Amino acid sequence: MSFDQYLLLAFQAVAEHGTVGRAAKALNATQPTVSRHIRALEEQFGQALFERDSRGMHLTQAGADLLPRIRLLLYEMAAARDLMDAHRGLMRGAIRIGGVTAVSRSVLPAVIALVAARAPGLRVEVTVASEDQLDRALANRDIDIVFAAEPPREVEGVRIGTRSFSDRCVVFCGRSHPLNGAPVSLERLLGAQWAMPPPESTPRRQFEALVRGAGFEPPDIALQTDSVELILSVVARSSIIGWFPQPLLIEGMRHGEVVAMSVPELEARRTFSMYRRARGTFPAAAQVFIDALGETMP
User: Which residues of 34-54 are buried (b: 16+ CB within 10 A; e: fewer)?
Assistant: First the structure.
C-alpha cells in the first residue's frame, strides 16, 4: 500500500484541529481540498476515520488507532528527505528541541546562535513547556530532543551523550519584603502567601515534597499560574513568596527586583540531560545541534 503525503498531512491536521476549516488554515489549503483528501484516505483504508457532527470532526476508534502511525510515517518521510539532503552536502530541515523555561534561557541561546552561524539552512524549533508536556511532545514526535531531569515516561528514550545542565531551585521574594535578610523560621515562612505553578507541574510536586520532607504541610497558594513572568512580577511587587530555578531569577536580581532567600531546607538541585526516542530515525540535522552544545557547555 502506498501513501500520499498530502493525504496524511490532511488527516493529521484535522485530527489535531478538530475541523476542516482550521485544518485547512494550518495547511494553507482550501477546505474542499482537505475534505477531498480525507475522503480519499478513508476510501483507501475502507474505514471511516472521523465522525462528523455540528461541532466538528472527531476520530473514530480506527482513526485514533491510525493517528500515531500517520505521525510516524510523516516523521520518517521528513527524516528521509533531510538525510538525502545531507548526503548531497545540503544541511536543511528542522531541529526540534524541547526544554523547560530555565533550560531555554540558560542553555539554548548560545547553542542556537552557533547553529545559525554554521548551518544557516537549518531551522531550529524550540518548545518551552512543562516536563509532562515535553514528555508527550517527544512521544508524539513533535520534538526530537528533550532536556529532562528524568528519562521519558510516555515513550522509550535513550540519553544523548554525557553532558548535562544543572541548576538549583530556591525561595525568593521581593526586595522590599519584610522577611528579606531577616532570620526566619521555616514555619513562619510557610505561613506566608506563595505563588506557584499548577499542582500537576513537576516544580510544584518537587516543592511540596521538600516541604513535607521537612515535616510541614504545603503552604496556602495566593497565586497559581503557568506564567513565569507573572509570578516574578507579582513577587517583586508584593509580600508573596516564590520558588524558582535560579536561572529564572537572574534578570530580576540584576535589576534589584527580587532576591534569593537562604532556606537550605527548601533548596533543590536539578540536573537535565538530553534524551531522544529509542526507536525511529534520528534527524541527521540534530547532530549539528549536539556538536554546538558540546562547544558551548563547559
Answer: bbebbeebbeeeeeebbeeee
Whole-prediction pTM value?
0.67
Q: Note the pLDDT of residue 78.
A: 77
Q: Cell 537549518 identifies what position?
A: 122
Amino acid at 212: R
Same domain, 141 and 278: yes
User: Are 75 and 114 part of one and the same domain?
Assistant: no
- CATH code for the domain of 56: 1.10.10.10
> In terms of residue numbers, what domain contains 228?
168-268
Split at pLDDT 50, 70, 90, the class of 39 is very high
Q: What is the pLDDT of residues 1-16, one digit of tens each?
A: 678 888 989 999 999 8
Q: Compute the distance between CA of residue 26 and CA of residue 29 in angstroms, rounded to an integer.
A: 8
Q: CA-to-CA distance for 23 and 11, rounded, in angstroms?
A: 9
- 216 and 158 share one domain: no
Rounded-to-integer distance, Cα 227 and Cα 127, Å: 15
